[in-house]
Specification:
Elements (H helix, E strand, L loop, with lengths): L2 H9 L4 H4 L5 H8 L13 H7 L12 H10 L2 H6 L9 E7 L6 H15 L2 E7 L1 H14 L6 E5 L3 H4 L10 H6 L23 E2 L5 E6 L17 H10 L27 H12 L21 H16 L11 H9 L6 E5 L2 H7 L9 E4 L7 E3 L4 E3 L13 E5 L7 H14 L2 H9 L14 H7 L3 H15 L13 H16 L6 H19 L1 H12 L2
Parallel strand pairs: 1-2, 1-3
Antiparallel strand pairs: 3-10, 4-10, 5-6, 5-7, 8-9
Helix pairs in contact: 5-7, 7-16, 11-13, 12-13, 13-21, 18-19, 20-21
């Protein structure tokens, strides 16, 4: 959104929610330009989309394997247009993916059972826990022993995989089947391609959004009259809540929930959320490394401030007991959704889980927004702080995709089967269901932002406008913080987690020492991989 448009909205005291009320909102959004992805007509998909959104139905309990199979069967139409029944008889495919929160691969199994029955192919599954996934993939990359045909993988790994020739390029018919032009703009080229080629069947549109408890904030509420808008306010509110009682559970109240335990590299994203507002200057696309030298910025004043924020809350006793052993999964699903804590940054799927998961207690008291800002931002080019408000939503992980590996090359039947399976999982209609129900994935298509569809599924209008709006505002933000897809990215993140864990446990004397330790480790990784090549790839990922 353009600055002048944003200022106009603020001047008129217009909220996103009020703007989106009713049919007239479409014209208002078009006039403002770019606030949310365009609402695309579902066309001939509409009846099917309405039918699958009733499986099992919002408020009917968590979906089961039977539900996943039913959705997979109903969404087989695009496959049947391109594949004859039994065409892949005798083909066996190995699929490597995650079992996060008993989702991901579990859903894929259900969705693909009707596909297997129709095509005749058989899929063998490799299920990995989040903490085991990155080491397993990194081992396969390092040794060149890719022993799987399909992989569920995050886009940051494309430098390690596509960049080393380990993936199969997407055929044109797959791009047509998945209706790739429906992806939100940030997932189009260059983020959606590698070296100008397409490999990723996108199944997710990752960004971190701000989740907060509405019963904590407002006139007379224990957290204050206003929802914090900056990280400075987040920390202040968290400290003010010490010793108070949670209005929902009656247990001790807590403010912001930082996960303090590593998660296979994924825990680093949560420090990134704080750091982005301090470190991602609007005039500079780089915020992790210097783009000319690959010198780490993780120990500059902006990142040190982010680390200090966490240390301050640890010292104040603001976190739940034993937070040092809480990883992101614990923080999101076992704490926040269960009623512990008032604020959280997480991937957008917390929004669908809050209303549709059997384990959620907060569905009626949760609100959403973009990553909190900061009342100052560090300019790495000038080496000075600037006293100006700054926002920088964190596009954490850039989204999951299904990829086909080079193992299928040379076998036309197997190759087509692998891509057909990937295309089924990345289809336009099945993706709507995954966005609306607990799946581990969040909205990523323009067509996902048809609010009427969500309302008909059982979501109330105000809630879904708030939830989807937080995703849309993040995707479209002009200062969005986009991570690089460079080789070894999770080596960098994993070692950062290790050093942060030491720091949070008191093994370093200051936030600066923690940042310096991470920077030193990052320099070694860069030298091992090759500094010149990393510089080139980092610049390319930033569009420089």
């Amino acid at each position: 959104m353009k600055v002048e448009h944003y200022n106009a909205i603020i001047k008129k005291q217009m909220s996103r929610r009020s703007m989106l009320q009713g049919a007239a909102s479409v014209g208002a959004i078009a006039a403002i330009g770019g606030l949310v992805p365009k609402q695309v007509s579902a066309g001939g998909h509409s009846a099917l989309r309405a039918e699958i959104l009733q499986i099992p139905g919002v408020g009917a309990g968590s979906p089961t394997d039977a539900d996943w199979q039913k959705v997979g069967d109903l969404c087989l139409g695009p496959t049947k247009e391109r594949v004859a029944e039994g065409e892949f008889e005798g083909v066996e495919l190995t699929f490597m993916g995650l079992n996060n929160q008993n989702l991901h691969n579990f859903l894929f199994r259900g969705f693909l059972k009707p596909w297997e029955a129709y095509t005749g192919a058989k899929i063998n599954w490799v299920d990995l826990a989040q903490a085991d996934y990155n080491p397993r993939l990194q081992q396969a990359i390092a040794t060149g022993t890719v022993d799987f045909d399909l992989i569920e993988m995050g886009a940051p790994f494309e430098g390690d995989t596509a960049g080393k020739g380990l993936l199969d390029e997407m055929p044109a018919w797959v791009e047509e089947q998945i209706e790739a032009d429906d992806l939100v703009s940030y997932l189009q080229a260059p983020v959606g391609t590698w070296d100008g080629k397409k490999y990723r069947v996108t199944i997710d549109g990752d960004c971190h959004t701000f989740c907060y408890r509405t019963d904590y904030f407002g006139d007379g509420a224990i957290g204050g009259a206003s929802v914090p808008k900056t990280w400075q306010e987040v920390n202040a509110a968290s400290k003010e809540l010490i010793g108070k009682e949670d209005p929902l559970t009656g247990l001790p109240a807590h403010g912001y929930l930082d996960p303090l335990k590593g998660w296979g590299g994924f825990g680093f994203y949560f420090l990134e959320n704080r750091a982005a507002a301090y470190a991602k200057h609007p005039s500079d696309p780089a915020w992790l490394f210097d783009p000319d030298t690959m010198k780490p910025r993780v120990n500059n004043p902006a990142w040190v401030q982010a680390i200090q924020d966490v240390l301050d809350l640890i010292e104040a006793g603001a976190y739940p007991a034993d937070q040092i052993n809480a990883d992101p999964g614990t923080t999101g699903f076992q704490q926040f959704l269960a009623g512990t804590g008032s604020m959280l940054m997480w991937w957008g799927d917390i929004g669908s889980n809050a209303r549709t998961s059997d384990t959620s207690l907060v569905g009626d008291v949760v609100g959403f927004g973009i990553n909190p800002g900061s009342d100052r931002v560090y300019n790495s080019q000038s080496g000075a702080w600037e006293d100006t408000y700054n926002e920088a939503p964190n596009m954490a992980y850039l989204g999951w995709g299904v990829y086909v590996t080079k193992n299928v090359q040379g076998d036309d039947k197997k190759q087509k089967a692998a891509w057909s399976a990937a295309a089924h999982l990345g289809g336009k209609d099945i993706s709507l269901w995954m966005s609306a129900y607990p799946s581990g994935f969040q909205p990523y298509r323009n067509s996902h932002f048809q609010y009427d569809e969500w309302e008909a599924a059982g979501y109330d209008r105000a809630y879904i406008e708030d939830y989807l709006g937080s995703n849309a505002d993040s995707y479209n933000h002009e200062n969005a913080a986009i991570e690089p897809r460079i080789p070894g990215i999770f080596q960098y993140y994993s070692v950062a987690e290790d050093e942060l864990a030491k720091g949070y446990a008191g093994q370093y004397g200051s936030a600066q020492e923690i940042g310096d330790a991470i920077a030193a480790a990052w320099e070694k990784i860069t030298d091992q991989i090759g500094r010149d090549s990393q510089v080139a790839l980092y610049k390319a990922s930033l569009g420089l």
